[in-house]
Structure formats: structure tokens, C-alpha cells
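ok so I'm stuck.
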Amino acid sequence: MAASRIVIENCAIATVDANDTEYASGHVVVADNLIESVGAGRAPAGLENVVRRVDGTGHLLTPGLVNTHHHFYQWITRGLATDHNLFDWLVALYPTWARIDESMARAAAQGSLAMMARGGVTTAMDHHYVYPRGAGELSGAIIGAASETGVRFTLARGSMDRGQSDGGLPPDFAVESLEDALAATEATVDKYHDASFGAMTQIAVAPCSPFSVSTELMRQGAELARRKGVRLHTHGSETVEEEQFCKELFGMGPTDYFESTGWLGSDVWMAHCVHMNDSDIAAFGRTGTGVAHCPSSNARLAAGIARVPDMLKAGVPVGLGVDGTASNESGELHTELRNALLINRLGAHRESALTARQALRLGTYGGAQVLGRAAQIGSIETGKLADLVLWKLDTLAHSSIADPVIALVLGAAAPVTLSLVNGRTVVEDNHLTTVDEDAVARSTRAEARRLARIAAAG
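replied:
not stuck anymore, here's the structure
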């Protein structure tokens, strides 16, 4: 059967390929779910079975944005504990989070996914680690929401087995036993992980953090992931307090602790990595361990400025993350392009820290690297999956910015005229085509109120 083709032309194109190839006016041809061709000027004449032609005049076409760290469930606890650092914030919110159930998890995932997709995210991930007893099938609810939204998705099946009685932060009834956490994680991999090219759903093994997880869960989690051939994810070096915690509890800093438990490697990525010294960064570069940089959340929780320029220089794969919407209430990844550039310029490297094109690369190809999918997504190249975003840049908001990449990264949030995931339309004229945004808003409001009532009742 002949391939169905979509032709997008007359737009600026930032391919984010190895040479940062750009076209002031170019075209992309999509055949079914793959990029068939990309180049300057109009699309080739005589193409067969063209089902749609898109005039991209006044637009920039980029790879879809790739989110590398998030906590969807936090969508229904936005706007709380707004003046706290990380540890105080966790202490304030864990008693509420520990009461989520399947219905809440689905609604929160729908809200998180809808907001990201509408803002240009084509590949999302969720690090879900709160599995209260009797809460229902949370992983299935989250994966179902991603499937409905139509985005490519990685569920990092998290876990916690260190409750308050063992010196951890979460309430005891919100943590799993070591055995239950490992068994549930393996079952999730077996049921949902798709290792094939073009997979829409993948699973990673993701114990939460050193201060909520036992050393044995870290070790056995790494062994499980490698036995199953899936990636590993956790939080790392987010705050000064975490470093002190690791030294007091384990007698070493976070990076050395991660290495001692098998948690450095090209199949691993960690969220935040704010407080890393030269030796830590060198270890990540040497082992190919990836980083999910979350600048808005790091600022919201006063965690600090991650040394992204030094990481990139050392060869560390770096992508961008929204992080949970209880510490980044906007819930969008597009804002992270701008904030990654701006916040890193407040650091030691100042104006030479990052360029706009480096920021775009973090949000596209860098994210694909971190998720282990750089051969499939993250750049506009022939043979890659058709995950593409067409940004509208011809309105008042960007009218006097000549460089389209500068306009996208440093300008106001650009409307999404078209977003394709796997060649399928997910966003059209700045609105989702796959789900009812108003219905999602009503559902998330209702579930947020229900959770607040349950938490207040204790």
C-alpha cells in the first residue's frame, strides 16, 4: 500500500542535526510516520498520495520537544508550599500526595500531558513513585492518559521503600516494601515496555531518590533494569541538603554513592544534578550518564544553578525537564528553553553559558539522547520518526525578531500551528485534536478538590 504523505513547506527549518543545518525557507515530506525528505525550497514535484499540504509561511519547523523529567500527579497540587525549599516542600506535600488514587492519577496525567502537548512536546515522560496501598492501577491509568493524548511516552516506574520510620521523608503508608516495589516494577516492564523502533510506550526503572529509597532497592533496581534491557532514572544531587544527607547516611557524596550501587552508565539519566563538582561531572561524562535539567523547578525550590555548560563540555548528555507541576506550575517545556538559557547565564559562564540554539538542542536532540532514542527522534532527518512542531512566528509577539530560533527561544511563547507525533496530528491551530481540553480542565479541578478534602480529613 502506498505511503500517505504530508508536505510542509515555505517555512524556516531548524533540523537540530549534527551540523545544526537550517533552512530559511524549506520543506519536509512525511511518509506515514517517517520523515521522507527535508531540504531547501519547495517540496519535490510529482509526489504521490499527498493527503495534506501545509503552507508554513511565517513559521519555524523544529523537532518535537522531548521532556525528560516530570511528576504528572502533582498537577492536582499546584500552587501549594510556594515559599519552601525542597525538603520543607516535600514534608509539606507528602501527606497529601500519599492519598492519591487511580482516578486522581489519570486526571492529573491528562492535565499534565495536555498542557505539554499543546506547547510542542511530542515525547513525554513521567517519574511516578507514589504508590499508596489500595490506590488502584496507577501505572495503567497514566499510560492510558498518554495513549489518549497521542504523545510518545516513557513511564519511569518509581518506588520508595524508606518511610518516616526508617529515616525517610514519605509517610510509611505511602511506601512499598523492597520486594513489592521490585515485583511491581518488573510487572510494569513486562506488561507495557515496547523496545521496537517507533515505540509509543516505554518503561524505565526509577527508584525515587537516595533519601526515600534503600541502598538495596537501588542495587536491585539497577540489576532489574539491565536484566530487562530498560533504562534507569532517579533524582540526583538536587540540593546541598541531599549531599549532606548522603554523606551522613552513606559516608560519601551522591555521585560516589550512585556509582557504588551501579547507577552510573549510558543507560542511566538523573534529574537535576545541581550540586556537582568537577569530579562528579567527569564521572558522568566518562560513563555517559545523562541529566534532565529542570531550570524552573530548581529556581522555584531555590535549589541552585546546574552547571550545564560544564556538563556539555565534558560530554554529558543533557535534556530538559518540566519537573512536577507543584514546583513548576506552568507545566510547559517551551518555557524551559528560555529559562535554561537565562538561568545558566546567571552562573559562572555568564553570557557565554548557552546560546539559543544550544537551548533548542537541549529540548530536542538532547532529550532524545537522555531517553535513549536519539536514533529515532530529536532532529529532522530522513528516516527518523515524524515528530514535528510548526511554530507560528508572524504575529505581533515576534514581529521584529528576524532570527526564528531566537524568536522561539527568547520571545514570548509561540503558538503551535501543527504538531505531529508519529505522523499523526496532535495539535492544530494551538488546540489539541486528541482530547477535549475543557473536559480535562473540569476533571483536574474536581480531582484536586477531592484530594484536598481527603487530605484535610487526615
